[in-house]
Structure formats: structure tokens, C-alpha cells
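REQUEST FORM: STRUCTURE PREDICTION
Request ID: SP-0412
Submitted by: Lab K.M.
Chain count: 1
Length (residues): 329
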Amino acid sequence: MIIDVHGHVSLPPEVLAYKAQLSASLGNPDVGPPQISDERLREFNRKHIGLLDGVGTDVQLISPRPFHAWHAQRPHSVVVDWTRHVNDIIARTCALFPDRYIGMGGLPQATGEPLDTALAELTRCVQEYGFVGFLLNPDPSEGGTPVPPGLGDRYWYPLYEKLCELDLPVLVHSASCSAPRESYTLHFINEESIAIVSLLESSVFTDFPELKMVIGHGGGAIPFQIARFESWRVKNKNPERFQESMRRLWYDTCVYNAEGLDLLFKIVGPDRCAFGTELPGTGTEVDPVSGRVFDDLKPVIEQQIPWLTDDDRAAVFEHNPRRIFNLKM
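STATUS: Completed
RESULT:
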């Protein structure tokens, strides 16, 4: 079985129109979310399902589209309303396609706000929908100010405690970006890199040894720059190699080329990687060299990294996703 742990929900235009209405009114008044029929959701997902069929994906975990997370919006109440509605759409979509989709939720985050609303929405989604994980945005300010605390900061501990209590993982994935120096695509990579260093240079995994965190996009830039962090460990007389510390985390394969995936597997090991493509997303363009879309990663892993064993590939495609997300299907 091929399980893709990094997918995002396909939202019909009516949902985005609701976001526009919330943006215009700032929730005052809030006319409420649109009434969308099951048939409309089925219709809007036919293309998405067709893309999964085309690349051989059996099941995909779907979560909110990160650049629509809207975490920097004020007042925070509209972020709560928006996140709740998107999570409801994810749950309905999964119910319509139970053999193809599994739900992951979004959290209504905001820099400077307590995590109460995030914890409340997490609890609701687990109790009502059985979501198997959540997106965690390391930069709720979305490239703006105030600068949020790193994921190693104790600010995040109430969330980590709840995740460990429920044995739930998070996929660390940044959102939109208002900084003129970064596109949101670059912001993803930068924030995932910052997240790894912040986590592994903190006491988070001493305090929460069972915490499960998947870093999106193959760990950002860290696998490529790992020698800098190894040297820093030596300089500071830390006896644990940074490469060993990295194995406390999990990584998806949303990297898009064989060279990058080869390095990721060598640095952290295929036993710490889970198949993820973000399809359909940024990589859904045809590579003029291969003639396939960039996010068609199954043949890359199967054919272009010859040192991987059959057991390695089975772990990446199925066994690790099942283990991380407690999948029983």
C-alpha cells in the first residue's frame, strides 16, 4: 500500500468565498459558513482523486492548505471560525472518500495568544472526527511580527503534552508569508530548518520523549547543511552528533528529486522517513526532463535510488506512515 502523509484538502470556491467574507467583515457580522452539498464535494474531488490514481497513491492524509491558514489575521476569532470550517470540510471529504482520504486537522494559531483555542479545536477534531494528526505552523506571524518563539520554547509545552497524551503526531509545516524577502515556498523551507534546530537544541525530547513530529519537505535545508551543525556540536562539547539527534524526528519525502531524497535517506535513514508528496501542490508541474510531474515520487524512490532495499521502500511507503499516525486500515 502507498500512503501519502503530506496532502492538502481541495477546497471548492464557496469555501474561499467564505474566507473572503470573513476578511471583509472581520467576523462582524459573520453570516456563517456556506452550505455545500455532498455532491459538490464529490465533484470537486474527482480531479484530486484522479491525480492520486495517476501516480499510484492508495491513501492520502489531507490537511488544510498551509497558505490559507491565515494565522496572522486579527481578530483571532476569525482564525478560529475559519480553521473550524476547513476542518469540517476535511472531515466531510474523508467521509465521502473513506478509502482514499484520512483527516488531519488545522490548529487556530496566533503569535502572542495562548494555545487554548488550538487545544480546544484539536480535542474537538479528535472526538468528533477521529483525525489522526495535525499541522503545526512554527511561524503563526507568517513572516511578520511579533516573532514567535521557536518550537523548543516552553510556550509550546501545553500542545506537546496533549499530543503525547493522545499519541498524536504533528506535521511541521509553515503557512503564508508576508515578508517581501521570501516567497511562501521559501518560507516553508526556512521555517522547517529553524524548527529542527530549535527542537534539537532544546530539552523538548527530554521532557517529551514520546512526542512524534514529522518535518515537512524533507527537513528543509538541514540535511544539506548538516556538517555546520555537527561542527557546532563539537565546538560546544556536545557529545551527541547532530545526525543522531535528527533521528528523534520524522521526515516526509516531499523533496521532488532523486538527489535530494538520496541525501535525506542517507542522513536520517529510511526508517525515519514517510512518503509524502503534497500532490496536488507546488510540485504538480511537468518536469521537462522526466516528462512526469515533480510530485510523482513513487518511481523516483523505486527506481532512482538503487541502494534502498525492498524493506526500506516498504517502510517509507507504508510501515512508517502506519506507525507515526497509528493507522489501522
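NOTES: The chain has one domain: 3-325.
Reviewed by: T.R.
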